[in-house]
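Students often ask why we bother encoding 3D structure as a string. The short answer is that it lets us treat folding as translation between two languages. Here is a chain of 297 residues written in the first language.
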Amino acid sequence: MSIPVGKLIAIGGAEDKGTDLETGEIHRSNLNFFELGILRRIVEEAGGPDSRIEVVTTASTIPHEVGNNYLDAFGKIGCTNIGLLHIRTRTDAMSAESMERLRNCDAVMFSGGNQLRLSATFGGTEFLKLLHKRYWEERFLIAGTSAGAMAMSNTMIYEGNATRAHLKGEVKVTTGLGFIDNIIIDSHFEKRGRFGRLAQVVASNPSCIGIGLGEDTGMLITAANKMEAIGSGLVMIIDGHDIKHSNIADIPEGNPISVENIVVHFCEKGNGYLIKERQFLMEASDGALVPKQVDVE
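And here it is in the second language, the structure alphabet:
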């Protein structure tokens, strides 16, 4: 089985850049989390300050404001070779200009907003096919924050009120952009109390690993397997491979779910995880794969 040459950076977000699907409120952009090192890591993984990074604002309802904030944030760390792709429609995505700019950049970063807008706009397009090709065959970086992170995987949460997430059917999933299989990503994880909704999706798809990204926090994913926690907050990993009892297939929608033996890991900066091996890593920096320590009496 082939392994992608490129890398992914999924970020839990700061303040929303678009519409909050749970409240219907529009929030203004706040990129403070970039000042804590995540933006610098994106630039580093893209190849340095001279790298060409295209910011895709499709998910946001305020694309120009979001785009300008990115230009300012990148500029503060000396990275000025930044482009803004304000793709609003499928026609925009398939335009000659969009395709040419994708061919000539070193990295793409998807902003936050509404992840369903990403899957509906890019699904099945030549733009997404080229993005996949570059990620699999080149040292190419795909980053995304909030909605942009949630859309990275094949299975994508697009709706689900956290207060009702313990009830069957309250969490909605669809197909994401498909850069990586067998994981499901949720963002703003701690602040919005989203453990229940990610746990329900993992219980429904126990072959997948759930990745709950706190704000100011991200996961660097290499070879579609090794993950490294970056940023200042918490990443929570939910593993359903060893679930024993689960009632989720048998109860009517709207009833509380019952699940036994979900495994949960908490990752701080520097910790990591191997997806295929389902193994927690104490240190996940390049060149180091240090498994969890086991005390021997």
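Translate back mentally: The mean pLDDT is 88. Keep this in mind for the problem set.
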